[in-house]
Each structure stands twice: as C-alpha cells, then as structure tokens.
Amino acid sequence: MITIIKPGILTSIQDLGRYGFQKYGVIASGAMDQSAHRIANLLVGNEENAATLEITLLGPAIAFNEDALISICGGDLSATINGQAVRRWRPVFVRGGSTLKFGPGKAGCRAYIAVAGGFDVPVVMNSKSTYLRAEIGGFSGRALKEGDQIAWSSHGNLSGIMIKHLKSNLKDHFFMECDWSAAGDLIDYTSRRSIRVMEGRQFELFTKGSQEKFFSEPFTVTSESDRMGYRLKGPLLTMEKAEEMISEAVSFGTIQVPSEGNPIVLLADRQTTGGYPKIGQIAAVDLPYLAQAKPGDRVYFTKVTLDEAQSLYLEQETKIKQLKIGVSLKFR
Amino acid sequence: MEYGIHPLGDHAIIIELGKDIYEETQQKVQVVSAFLDEHPPCWMVEYIPAFTTVTVFYDPVYFTNINKAKLPYNQACGQLSEMLEGLKAGNEKEQRVVEIPVCYGGEFGPDLEHVATINGLTAEEVIKIHSSGDYLVYMIGFAPGFPYVGGMPENIAAPRRESPRLKIPARSVGIAGEQTGIYPIETPGGWQLIGRTPLELFQPQAEPPSLLRAGDKLRFRPISHKEYLEWENHKG
What we know:
The complex is a heterodimer.
Chain A: E1 2-6, E2 12-14, H1 34-42, E3 52-56, E4 61-64, E5 68-76, E6 79-81, E7 84-85, E8 92-94, E9 99-102, E10 107-115, E11 149-150, H2 157-168, E12 175-177, E13 194-199, H3 208-214, E14 219-225, E15 229-233, E16 248-249, E17 254-256, E18 264-266, E19 273-274, E20 278-282, H4 287-291, E21 298-303, H5 306-330
Parallel strand pairs in A: 13-21
Antiparallel strand pairs in A: 1-4, 1-11, 2-3, 3-10, 4-9, 5-8, 5-10, 6-7, 6-9, 8-12, 13-20, 14-15, 14-21, 15-18, 16-19, 17-18, 17-20
Chain B: E1 4-7, E2 12-16, H1 23-38, E3 44-49, E4 53-58, H2 60-64, H3 72-85, E5 97-104, H4 112-118, H5 123-132, E6 135-140, E7 147-150, E8 165-168, E9 172-176, E10 179-182, E11 187-189, E12 192-196, E13 217-222, H6 225-235
Parallel strand pairs in B: 5-13
Antiparallel strand pairs in B: 1-2, 2-4, 3-4, 5-12, 6-7, 6-13, 8-11, 9-10, 9-12
C-alpha cells in the first residue's frame, strides 16, 4: 500500500481508457501519454492496461507502506527516493518505509508510476481510469488527496522474478534499480518539437494561407490546457467562408478550430463529439509528445499521410512488443 | 444505403449518412448502429453515432495479422462498405418512447418566467407547450447521458443566458435557442432552466449507463412538487 503525503497538482489513477461507452456520452479518459503508461507497466511485469498513477508537473510525495516493484516513465520530474535520485524507464525495487518525491520538472509534463500487480481500484464501465468531471472511476472518482491510501493487486510470475533479482542486490539501500533503460529510441521528449499531423476532414475549407501556416509556423501551448485539450496560440487560422458544422465524433488528437481562429487539440478527457471544423489530426504515434508539452512550450506540425501515420504506428507497436519480450528475457 | 466514408485520424472511420439533420438521416444512423451492435466486427473498438454520422474506432494492429501489405484503413473501409451495401433504411428497431416527468418552475426552474415573458406567454402556457411536444433524441454527447433533442416548438425558444451559471444541478431541464435538453450531471452551463426531473439520466453502475439512447422518442410530463419528492423518496 502507498500513502499520499502530498498530492501534487494533479495526480490521478489512469489506465488505457474507458471504451465502449462513448456512444452514451461517457468520455474515454485514460493516460495522456499512453506510451509511457504502457512501458511503465511492462517494466514491472504487468499487462499494459494495468492502472498507474499519472502525475503532472509538480508531482506528489508518496510513502511506501510496504516493499514494492515500481517503474517511473514519462517526463523527468526529478524523482527521488529518500532524497536520492531515481532513474526513469527501468524496474525499481523500493523498500517499505521509503518516500518517493518529485521536484522541479526537467523535461516533459507528466510521469507514470506503475507498481507490480497494478493499483487496485474498482473497475467502472470496463476501466479503472478516473473520470474527473463525472466523479467516477479511479480512486473515489477524483484526483488523489493527502492521506489517500491505495493498495495494489497481487503480481504475476515475471514480477516475482524481478523482485527476487533486485532484492538480492538491495543490501542496506532504500531502493535498487536496474542498470538498463527501456527508453531507447522509443521516446525522447526533449529533442522532439515537431508533431506529425494528418489533414483533418475540413482542412480544405481553410484559406490557403492558413493551410500553409498550420504546417510551417510554431504554436504555443497556452495555460488554458488540461487533460481535456490544449488550447494553442499561433497564427490565426481562418476558413474561406464560415460554415455551420454538424456535431460528430472526435478522437484523441483531433485539432479543432473555433471561429476565433486558435486551434484546440483534443486529448484524453475530450468530449465524445465536437462541432468545430477539424483542421488536422495528430498521428497516434506522436500523441505522447504533445501530451508531454507543457504550457509555454512551442510545437510545430509536420504533414503526414494516413498511410505514413499507420505505418509509423505499426512500427511503434512492433517495438513495444519487442520491449515486452526483451523485459522477460532480461530476467531469464 | 448511400454513404460516404472518411478517415478520422489513423484509428477511426467516419461513415457519413447525410448532410443535414433530418429524421430520415437519424433513422439510417440507427440502422447502422443496430447492425454494429448485433454484428460487431472483431477489429472494432467501439462506435459513436451522431446526427448524420456513425464513427467506427478500430485497432490498426489487428489487420496486420490478415494482410501485411494492405493499409489497415483500406481493409477496414472494405469491410464496412460490404456491410453498408447490404443495409436498408426501414430495418430500424422499434422506437422506444421514454416519458420524462418534470417538475416545472419554482426553485427547479428559475428561468421559466423569463422564457414565458420573452415569448409573450404565461408560465403555464410554456409548460403546456413544452410537455405536449414530440421529441426525438438525435444523439447522446457533450456529457454522459446528455441527449441532443430535436422537435421543440419554436414559440418557447429562448437564447442562452448572457453569463453561464457556474453550476447547473444534475437533472435540470433547460432551453437553449430552439433546443431543449436535460443535464445528467452537475456542470456549468448557459441554458435557461425551466424545471427538473427526478429521473437519473446517467447511472454508471447500470447497463447501459444512459437512460436515453439515440433514436428514442421523448415526452415530458408535468408533475407537482409533491410528486417530484415522492419520486425522489422512491429512489431511496
């Protein structure tokens, strides 16, 4: 079990999302950076969908009431265990009684903490993700608060082998981490500011000038950005003529442009449908990069075709599959 | 059935069944939705019906097991086209009629008088008109269980409030322009509130979690404050 000593700005339980109920207006939710969430789980021997803690910018302080196998993936939010820096993207064995804290954000916006077995909260509509506005799912349907205690489910064989291995090297330390990293070429938040985007359904309705600017000039993530969506500021995007749109489904990474001309990127907590013109759609492989951008960061959009976006996605999925096999081979 | 097919990014396909909000288009949306419920393709994650479209979400990885050379999008489109060719409008399921009891005015409907005044009516007339309309649920969206309802008589239309309320209580019935609707959960909003229903529109533990579904016919029935309280007590 863990106990939250300080909650941080926004710490919530998430998995890969709540699917099958969007037709009833129930939003998908789920981890903003799905790659980091999935890798964090694989590194502790979990299924990719197990519930993790998503922490945001100013992270929490968390006491471990018992021994645990964890991994921290995603942005670099200066994690320490009992004052000593702990590295991301690897399995870490934590001795019970230790405290995990986060400091200044060095790169990225969010990090994910996975624990072997996965955090144990009730499944609501097929998911453990927190749906903040409807106050369901996750831990009591809300962001974590001081004093909250969260247990985890029992772990599988692979996690057991990892624990045994790391524990045997623990000696008198508070934690023991593997000396290898899973990040490799899968993730690099600091160097990538160019996000690959497909043309949206209404792309052709925008002026030629707006179409060009969209794919060449930078956009800044404004402070009006959250799990629901990022409001961007850059060159104003205008349509040839104002057209009345009929609401239809939107998805993770849809870029809408309301009439005032500043784009909004829809993210994990987006509504199920939207009525603004869609200028673009972020390629699924690049969603984690945007989810790791924080207010003030600048992004560029680069055009890709649907064909390219799907090929990139399939390549990434192959890499994640290889990582899953790789993790188990390291502990053979 | 006539349709258009468009990608929504690399994980979804929009099936377009019409260009305008018509009841006939809505029926086509119902036919496609019902088919997807009864014969869900194994690669489908879920679908979202709207006024003129049904959007199907899929897992591109699934198709690589079938044909590595062909783009997953094209494979999914191929299967959807085959399905759509065989569908005919008119096969829709029997329409459900859902009655929504509403306690109009008073503390539950603080804007009822305003809606009456701007339309040159009395509050009683607004209630009568609102509760005698035949309504159709075009889609569910915006919030869990929130119905986009068509069919409200124009003579009780009212523009949104100039400054939205920070909190609209759950189950409030309101008017915005020529639309009427019910708020399933507490949200901020600019609708003119004319009453409240004791019915829960969103129940996370129920299957399905939404009281209403796209395609339902809606009727509003006025109830007294006393009846409202009895409903509430009955819910326990």
